[in-house]
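fyi for ur records
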Amino acid sequence: PGVPRHTNRLINEKSPYLLQHAHNPVDWYPWGQEAFDKAKTENKLIFLSVGYSTCHWCHVMEEESFKSKEIGDIMNEHFVCIKVDREERPDVDKVYMTFVQATSGGGGWPMSVWLTPDLKPFAGGTYFPPEDGVHRVGFRTVLLRIAEQWKENKDALLESSQRILEALRHTSEIRVQGQESPPPPKEVMDTCFEQLSRSYDEDYGGFSISPKFPTPVNLNFLFTYWALHPKTPEGARALQMALHTLKMMAHGGIHDHVGQGFHRYSTDQHWHVPHFEKMLYDQGQLAAVYSRAFQISGDEFFADVVRDILLYVSRDLSDQAGGFYSAEDADSYPTTTSGEKREGAFCVWTAEELRTLLPDPVEGATEGTTLADVFMHHYGVKEAGNVDPMKDPHQELKGKNVLIVSCSPELTAARFRLEPGQLSVLLQECRQRLSSARAQRPRPHLDTKMLAAWNGLMISGLAQAGAALAEQGYVSRAAQAAAFLRTHLFDPDSGRLLRSCYQGKDNSVEQSAVPIQGFLEDYVFVIQALFDLYEASLEQGWLEWALHLQHMQDKLFWDPKGFAYFSTEAGDPSLLLRLKDDQDGAEPTPNSVTVTNLLRAACYSGHMDWVEKAGRILAAFSERLQKIPITLPEMVRATAVFHQTLKQVIICGDPQGEDTKEMLHCVHSVFSPNKVLMVADGDSAGFLYRQLPFLASLERKDGKATAYVCSNFTCSLPVTSVQELCGIISP
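which gave:
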């Protein structure tokens, strides 16, 4: 490409999404005072466009509308145009998405919203095609109509926007009504289980017909439900639902069988044809949930999936300095000479390509069998492509195959008269060849923004995997990422987290001119990560930092009147609403996770006011938890933990001693949702002993590593047998 014809203010930003739009003919502004002042001075409406760099429909709307000189001229003449990266500014996204969902019944990205000069929304939607169609009004028409309305009916629009804002304030308020206490755990758990059970797909797993999302929050809830009801038919069903879903996902096309990791979601019931972008937050949560599946089942299949995810993240989403990038795009150029990107181009195969790459005859198999025959049979490859045209509206995948495990290894081996062990080696060889071939294709765009919250989720995934699989390398990688956060996304002077940093030139790490302060989710997911990292590494420095951040979270976000935490801190006049998320989605809502964080913090510090805070959050969400708990499965899980009281598993011993290590291995290998782990190493000057003076009274018996299982700082008799300890903490 030659020199761009247009360059706007976004060229000075760091966000990859904003930079993608820096050469549009639209006079884009970033979210900020300069744009707000211009709208007021010129008495113009604001057009707000919100998206993210790996969003397929965001790319489509840019190609069709924002790159059009004619549409750009209309936008520049009538509006002040603002672009927002929703991953950088989830606060802005949430306020206006609340409006779009309330007024249109749906939402998504790109989000398109029209605001008055004082930032109040009055019209909005998601993707608009450029021109009018049979069923949809075009973007150009919408722009001209809204500009006309502002000219003719300004007062009515202003009045309407004020009414809308008041209604949103009222409907989005979450607070304790009167003397509410936390809801009854059994009733809430049972209702949530029944609601999930009704929506469960018995054949393919998951909790809808299509589209199908991984939803780790549902699977974590089911594991906890099983752990609390291990001997009941309901508990057995909960476990079966979770494990079957995880197996079907791992076999499906949502799992990248050649390049590892998981795509965003499946467009069909069978987990077959995915939406191909890969998000860091999915990899982190899925690494954790597959680790739990391995703890519970002992099935090496789940451990292999964990290794697969972490191989992808370490290879493709890791920054040299230790942080993790946000995402890989769904769209890419099919070949180096292509002029147009296509969704999934990097990942899909024709039958002909596979025959060319895998021509070798297979020794010992049915006569005439090639590697391609075996591979294509096992992964459901068809000569004409295996993608249902109904799932491919733009014909981007015509004649292509998305790999999906279509039969068991035993059946494939029997079909070609192979030994199962031999089949495994052959398939591995095939996948490696395909991986080498894929490396020659143009890669999808990589969003190299690094977010505190998502790095937190990834650190948790690594720490839990390292503990459950006894893989020290994963724990070390988690510690490296936590050190990265402390260096690049924490301000030691103010004691506060920052939201984002960016890969700069020559692999440096850059910060924006005015750094974005951390939001509630950044604190919550980083605190959770530091607790997980302490339990896996026993480095008390992570615990100390976690407790510091918990105090800071209380100061910045706690609602002393209505209880629970706001998503944003007070004092930003450009944010019309301070909201509390009320739904676990692709990521759990921060208030859901923070209940467990607070209970863990209390166990590690002795500050019992944190337990009280946890109860107040549950009280604030009580009505929702009792009516539709399926919207908050992570908070339902936390409700059970709150009422059960966390077990403090304290091991007195030398962390390097073999007897201590055996006890730690037992604790790490058992899934127990209501425990915290600590090691009392006898260093009375250490951080834990200063926080919890009672540790000094616990001692080793007969010079051996000794475990105590405590509840509210009251401890059981000492245990020196590893077997006995495993029995006590097992479900």
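The chain has 27 helices and 21 strands. thats all i got for now
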